[in-house]
Amino acid sequence: MPNTKSAEKRLRQSARQRLTNQVKKSMMRTYVRKLNEAVAAGDKAAATELLPIVFKKIDKAAKGNCIHKNTAARKKSLLSKRVNGIG
Predict the structure, then answer these.
(1) How many angstroms separate the CA atoms of 26 and 32, rounded?
(2) Residue 43 above 90 pLDDT?
(3) Which H or E element spans position 2?
(4) What is the pTM of this model?
(5) Between the CA of residue 16 and those of 57, 65, 73, what are the distances in Å?
(6) Distance between CA 64 and CA 43 in Å, rounded?
């Protein structure tokens, strides 16, 4: 347990931040999974419709330092290659 007032405050802050990071990361993963399912099904229309939404979720996670910006760029590149690869 924290011994000082500032340590108690930091504990409260980190708990709130952890919760928001979990929410952002979970949303991002959910939409990435939906996009991957559309790609696996070969549904190009649904995949291209989901792509900007997924990009937005990834960018929001990167903006809030939930994931690293290079990780975000790598994920976006990989997903766009998958969508463009649908024949």
Answers:
(1) 10
(2) yes
(3) none
(4) 0.87
(5) 20, 14, 26
(6) 31
58, 75 Cβ separation under 8 angstroms = yes
The rounded mean pLDDT for the chain is 96
Residue 13 C-alpha from the chain's centroid = 22
Question: Which residues, 6 or more positions from 21, have their beta carbon under 8 angstroms from its beta carbon?
Answer: 64, 66
Q: How far apart are CA 85 and CA 87, in angstroms?
A: 6
pLDDT band at 72 (very low <50, low <70, confident <90, very high): very high
Identity of the residue numbered 77: S
Please give the DSSP secondary-structure letter assigned to residue 86.
Answer: -
Task: Say what percent of the chain tops pLDDT 90.
Answer: 95
Determine the pLDDT at residue 1.
85
